[in-house]
């Protein structure tokens, strides 16, 4: 309990200071992340515009509030019966009533003007220099770089925080819940257009410091854009309830210099070419199981359990499918089961990974089938 | 069928079979308080899990069920029925009617509620768990990806809707048809006015909600594709239909609260309401506007810019009539002769905190700024300011204000005032810091959060426990008053109170106004 | 105490305690709970669907409603109802119909939304969907929608979103523009029937007002008959849709909106027919209704006019446009 009370004491202090800074413009917020009390203007022109708008409205409201509450408290203090104040009996005054209808209306017009121009700025996706297709999945993001010459680059971005940290058996890291295995990389000072969509349910792609939040709607593509003016790593989260792990699908954007971006992209493309080459290869059982284990743990275990014991999905250990014909098993992996949480993984995993994970499922958790699936089998199955 | 000069029947059958507006009102009030405790218990689970980063008490899936049921039960089970109960008790007495217009249907409107909520709560024990898709149940999370219990959820929403529609029709018929001679529309107490308009909103939007859940039902069980792009539908269609209901719904919650405050502030200021007519027009204006602003909940779904602008302007406009109300209350207090009994304290609490909630609402209505606020804790802070400090505070004020009239006994004033101060402080400790974490980027509906939000969340949880615990005092005070409060038999319990309900005996007799009173 | 009004005053009838509300609740809850259970059994394979509970509930509900209305009618005949109470019933019925209008508004809203906004967006047209051709290449929007986006890309396995069911397309549309065989005239026949029936129910009303019970019974009978014919034709049309047009609930959003709108309308016609039928029986068997006291009939006829108006909307937006 010592821990709590110590914290509590600190908090009362904080609270006083923070409320004061908040009211005095929230200047403190700028860099300190912990106990940040205000919106951050971030690193884009839209972010700055939105921040300015936010502060302007906030101040207008504060001023109106001070006036309104001022009158009220004056009245509460002076017009009380205990002070012997006698009630007057005035009511209805057309003049006053017109005034307090028209003045707020004018104030609102004053707010609507900058709001409109900011909105138009934020909505203008024209003349983007590059496009990234962002697809929300339960519970990860997929990024695909469009319009690029050479190999198509696409990858998934999963939460990297280990379960041990989440379940408090290990010290939580600095970027607890805001870290991914593979961030999306964009060049600085470049207008990047994001095409946002989803595969299953609605998600929302949000990075506060880029001032981007756009819902990812399955079956529709939304457009939004950013132009980061400062290199750095920017973190955000999925902002639309998307099921069990909604709280565990962060977004991490790595803004790098243009040169760095070019070389990163080249590496990625080389990697993609490599996978392509692998597809033509034949693997040994050990290689497949080894690779498949990794894929399983990152992609399937959330539903089927670390040891194939099942959960949201059916158990794999002893499953009739995983210990039955290869074709059917492969089919479920590629096409999923309609109407259930079992998605079609054909479009999410490359053929090598798919072959590996199916092989792994057939040879792990006591499923000793001894047979294996090669990338070419996956390719053929997809062909039909 | 005999004379009406008799008291209530004895035993359980009094409550099961009653057609008396006061009995039915009482049942609504107790039922809603029970739901408030249940919804509050879920909120306590939410706040306990969010006390610290990391998962400690519940699993993420269960957390989502808590969030969902908390929202649903508070909105549909606690707030709405509590105001319906108040309407049942007060409207006939305020307009000089012998009872509600359609007493048997009145009983039915009430009795379908408890089983509907029983079904909703029982989903917690079903396979796959209770609904976990938020009180807004966006498709396809609530259709293709929903647990099987969603079917029970859908039917319970249907039943709730039926109850609300019947209740509202009853209120409309009562107000339009049962006023005592001389009680013209523009003489009606404001509580009656706000309820008349609320009832109209309810009859207009509850069927739309029924339509939305029916489409869900069809998508889940009968292969239609309203909310699936693969068949030519659109998940966003669901949101449009939902919010066409959902936005008027929030004014359904707050308008009767406005009515209550408009009764109580003049009473304790000993001065008539500043602008009666403009209050009525403002209420009507809010109701009208509420139909054309729904998409302000959907600024981020990617609407065409013309849509964004239209909904932004329309939403901002609501500040004008709401401002008229706030200004009216304050000018009513101005140069009054005020005293500060518990009901008045809660009304002043309402006035301050609701206005703050209204300001954050106005900030949310600015579309580009909402891109940063949306689905963050800033929104959670906004709506608890208007719903807890708005609706719940005013409901609490109403109970303290009319309780002596209902049971002929006076509550304990000191305890009432203590309840107010603990509530007021607890409430602000809970929800004020949520503005901060929201602006700093904490999304809502998450069971676990990044370390930078830890301190404010802990504060918020502590505040929630304080606020929650203070409700025990309220419950105790009410029960103690009913059982053993100081008897009072003044017809006019409060010296500044005006209205027909203060002309009948205290406690209010089982049947009032069998012959209509004369209204000057 | 307040001073009492001195003017003569007709007492408002506040009924004694009544068990009907609680019994009706039991019926309602049994039927909804039963329906939910059966649907879940059918869809999620929780076992053989069993509709017993639902039917028992519906039966209880219907029985209670029957006795409820009977009580109300008896009270009226016993002269307990003041003019004011009768007005309460009128107001109640009016706002009930208004709520029904709003229920249909939700479905009409859905229809307009998909036709004018979402559909074109899916095909990559307009401000809301410039990039959607990436998801649904080859999908072209038309109304009636004869090919679902899913089919345009070659089926479930080719679509870029997860499996959300299989949506087939209609082979032919029910749109009135393709009139050929006689049964394609069905919507028009139905329009004529329903409009006529609004007229006949009005004639019946006139008859009643002028004290001519014979005329009333005759024209009310004709109205009920027209209602029955309408429902018959509607059933026939559904049969055609399923058997020969390939138009089902699964036929994408076209099938969804078509069946939901016409289905709920058909259901309301059935309700209206039953309501009017009961009034006919009351008049024939029990000699109810006089020229100045016939609210049961009036309420049913308002309902009937409402159903008629909805149909005109349907005919316009589902079949013609
Ligand atoms: C009682 C319920 C209630 C009430 C009364 C309100 C009132 C308002 N609300 Fe709120 N709102 C909710 C309940 C309510 N809201 C809920 C539950 C949600 C979240 C739903 C969910 O997603 O789960 C929500 C969400 C919500 C959003 C969506 C946020 C998002 O998800 O991104 C928006 C956006 O526009 C909004 C706006 C407003 C506005 C403009 C008002 C206005 O009516 C406020 C008007 C009042 C004032 C402005 C103060 C008094 C006025 C003056 C003193 C006059 C002078 C003032 C000026 C000229 C500035 N609300
Ligand atoms: C009128 C409606 C209403 C009311 C009254 C409340 C009341 C409260 N709400 Fe409510 N809330 C909503 C409507 C309401 N809420 C809605 C619509 C949502 C959105 C849901 C969604 O996202 O889908 C929401 C979401 C929501 C969240 C966000 C959850 C999330 O996004 O994950 C949180 C978190 O703090 C919260 C907290 C609270 C608290 C602490 C109270 C307190 O005021 C409750 C106090 C009451 C009690 C505690 C019960 C009575 C007291 C006792 C029984 C005594 C015993 C108690 C103790 C000893 C502690 N609510
Ligand atoms: Cu994805 Cu929330
Ligand atoms: Cu709203």
What descriptors fit this protein?
heterotrimer, A: 384 residues, Helix Hairpins, Immunoglobulin-like, Cytochrome Bc1 Complex, Chain D, domain 2, five-stranded mixed β-sheet, 10 strands, elongated, C: 321 residues, mainly alpha, 2 domains, binds heme-A, binds dinuclear copper ion, binds copper (II) ion
What's this entry about, in short?
The complex is a heterotrimer of chains A (384), B (520) and C (321). With 384 residues, chain A is of the alpha+beta class.
By secondary-structure content and strand pairing, the structural class of chain A works out as alpha+beta
Number of strands of chain A: 10
CATH class of the largest domain in chain A: Mainly Beta
What level of helicity do the residues of chain C show?
55-70%
Quote the beta fraction of chain C: under 5%
Mean of all residue-level pLDDT scores of chain A:
86
Name of the CATH class of the largest domain in chain C: Mainly Alpha
Q: Topology as H/E string of chain C?
A: HHHHHHHH
The CATH architecture name of the largest domain in chain A reads Sandwich
User: Which stretches of chain C are low in confidence, meaning pLDDT under 50 for 5 or more residues running?
Assistant: 1-8
Bound molecules: heme-A, dinuclear copper ion, copper (II) ion
Contiguous runs where pLDDT drops below 50 for at least 5 residues of chain A:
1-10, 23-32
- Head-to-tail CA distance between termini of chain A: 63 Å
At CATH level 3, the topology of the largest domain in chain C is: Four Helix Bundle (Hemerythrin (Met), subunit A)
Radius of gyration of chain A: 28 Å
Largest interface: A-B, 109 and 95 residues
Q: Total helix count of chain C?
A: 8
Domain count of chain C: 2
The CATH superfamily of the largest domain in chain C is known as: Cytochrome c oxidase, subunit III, four-helix bundle
